């Protein structure tokens, strides 16, 4: 599976400034990939304490998503084959081998397969640093037919002794701001400090809620590893839901406490909240008892494997995936790049930015993303009309097309939901207009270079050619050299027709 992609470090923590540093080029290669650039994104991140099996779990996510994506492609190909011929019925999946989403229950693959993808390992030293994204966006089709690209994001473990609280909060904030599903990986139980770290950036979420009706974040799913009290709350989703309800319960005796405020913010800022309780995976997984462990499911406790089998489709099956939205607008690869670019500037310091600064940054990024998408639409449409491989176009027709596409691009920008006031977007819309006008100048220049008449220069030069050819044809006629007279007469006629054609095109 890992041969289809690899983890790419897109963010690292700068040791000197303690702030973060973005690898824009590496991120652009993923975001502007044709699978992702214009497709709605589902961005799945995992964050939480260090050394608690986050990267390990992401590799099951990869295995499941590739399984679904391949199955969907085969089904599509099968449908095409089926339309052509009806004799491959035996190869089609039967109802009983499929679960409720229509995919094989055996997505976990063979028992001895090694767990590959994001780097994971045993021991006490931290493994993942900064933020990593899987290089290959995985395209899946949702039940309504919409194709989405899923990006997987691994994050540096929190509360590692070498890290400041500010850095822990920065990684957590940035991965939550940019993901549609944040898996909050915790060991044994949900503790109060797990909730408090969320509060460091939920003030921003509250500000978004105050200024618009859109929820700032999509889904938060607590994943509790090595759950030890199945008698109180059973393993799995239902037990998780009852534990989460208990943990998010408000304290009626002290309604204005900061703990209550955090809980209210968690309730209101996420569209969806969930929790899943996983059993202990056994000594082979937790402490590599008996020698190096490569992640084979045959060496994990069966109860753990059965819960993984249920958990992963629960969060990632195409019908459960939520598309990433910011300010109510769907995020695609092109816009994600703008968000990261602006956030990287905002998170330069060692502390998490103030809610107001974070809001302003998101408003700026949402406008820049809208500009980028509108410009992309204009450039793509103009290239279809008069790109390098297209023939010369009448300049009047070219201008008409430009005016029409300029209007459509500006409308597209206006109709995109953005954070921030309307006056604020005005300057972005003005810049878009200027930008498109200068792109048009370049298209005009390219179009002119394809005009064979331009190779001749101005009509005045053409007129001189005509005069010269005509005069020579008359002279040769007078001195009696007929063939040369005819040749220059022909040339003069071609010049004349060209001048008429040139003037009629202007
Ligand atoms: N106890 C226990 N250990 C697990 C579980 N899942 C994986 N592990 C083990 O945890 C260890 C660390 O796994 P990683 O995936 O590298 O952990 P991580 O959270 O990504 O670690 P950092 O990147 O350093 O923050 C490995 O030895 C895994 O085998 C689990 O559910 N419970
Ligand atoms: Mg890791």
Question: Can you walk me through this structure?
Answer:
- By secondary structure, this protein is α/β, with parallel strands linked by helices.
- It has helices spanning 24-31, 54-84, 165-178, 192-211, 237-247, 258-269, 283-287, 302-316, 333-346, 355-386, 395-415, 422-449, 452-455, 459-478, 482-505; strands at residues 7-13, 20-22, 41-48, 131-134, 138-141, 147-155, 181-187, 217-225, 270-277, 325-326, 329-330.
- The strands form 2 sheets. Strands 1, 2, 3, 4, 5, 6, 7, 8 and 9 form a 9-stranded mixed sheet that branches.
- Strand 1 and strand 2 form a beta hairpin.
- It starts with 6 loop residues before the first strand and ends with a helix.
- Bound molecules: guanosine-5'-triphosphate (GTP) and magnesium ion.
- The site of magnesium ion has 6 residues, from helix 2.
Q: Structural class from helices and strands?
A: alpha/beta
Gyration radius (Cα, Å) is 31 Å
Helix-strand topology string: EEHEHEEEHEHEHHEHHEEHHHHHHH
Mean pLDDT over all positions: 88
The bound ligands are: guanosine-5'-triphosphate, magnesium ion
The second-level CATH architecture of the largest domain is: 3-Layer(aba) Sandwich
Instruction: Supply the number of structural domains.
Output: 3
Question: Descriptors for this entry?
Answer:
single chain; about 500 residues; alpha/beta; Rossmann fold; Methane Monooxygenase Hydroxylase, Chain G, domain 1; 3 domains; nine-stranded mixed β-sheet; two-stranded antiparallel ribbon; 15 helices; about 10% strand; elongated; binds guanosine-5'-triphosphate; binds magnesium ion
